[in-house]
Automatic annotation (TrEMBL):
Name of this chain's protein: OGA GlcNAcase
Domain (GH84): residue spans on this chain: 1-150
Gene name of this polypeptide: Mgea5_2
InterPro entries: GH (IPR017853), Glycosyl_Hydrolase_84 (IPR051822), O-GlcNAcase_cat (IPR011496)
One GO process term, biological-process aspect: glycoprotein metabolic process
GO molecular function: beta-N-acetylglucosaminidase activity
UniProt cross-references to PROSITE patterns, sorted A to Z: GH84
């Protein structure tokens, strides 16, 4: 019926999107969802080009970065993806995912995401560790990164200053761009406080 996989997927996605009344959030995960799966590259992928042309504008497209688990995200790559998809991508961030190797747990700060990414994104989803309690630091430091990004967007000439001021001295973040080390120290302090709070409760 369809001349290509991309056209088939776009047709089904568009039909479902219309049937649901074109909701404000409707996400589509493509078969080529990262740079390493694109042939020969994201900007030259016939599959992605077709999706960009055929998918209705209100449908968000998920992207994981250069790889399935991307150590770094750059504005240049996101700009390339936006160009071919004709929309800003929704990042599905697998930085902390450990469902592919349950022997590993990732407890470091949110890092490898250069400042100024938010204007290039339609959204960001964090795929966390399978172990619930192990995600305090990932989610906490993601919040610090996002606050820094909001401050950077509000005041491009003072990266992160507004966010740091809004958070107050109690959070311990210095003025300026996001610091993974400072975010980690803040998260650890808050995590210890949360552990102590839970331990003091009846039955804790």
């Amino acid at each position: 019926v369809f001349p290509s996989l991309a056209q088939a997927q776009a047709s089904v996605a568009n039909e479902a999107y219309r049937e649901l009344g074109q909701p404000s959030v409707f996400l589509f995960c493509p078969t080529e969802y990262c740079g390493s799966l694109c042939s020969p590259s994201p900007s030259q992928s016939r599959y992605l080009l077709t999706l960009g042309q055929e998918l209705l504008p209100g449908i968000g497209v998920i992207w994981t970065g250069p790889k399935v688990v991307s150590q770094e995200l750059s504005a240049a790559l996101l700009e390339e993806v936006e160009g071919v998809l004709r929309r800003r991508p929704v990042i599905w961030d697998n930085l902390y995912a450990n469902d592919y190797d349950c022997r590993r747990v990732f407890l470091g700060p949110y890092t490898g995401r250069v400042p100024g990414l938010v204007p290039r994104l339609c959204g960001l989803l964090l795929n966390p560790n399978c172990e619930l309690q192990a995600n305090f630091i990932p989610i906490h430091t993601l919040g610090s990164w996002f606050q820094s990004e909001l401050g950077s967007c509000a005041h491009p000439d003072r990266t992160g200053t507004a966010a740091a001021a809004a958070q107050g001295d109690s959070q311990g973040l210095r003025e300026g761009s996001y610091s993974p080390q400072e975010a980690l120290e803040l998260a650890l302090r808050d995590w210890v406080a949360e552990i102590n709070r839970q331990a003091s409760e009846p039955g804790g």
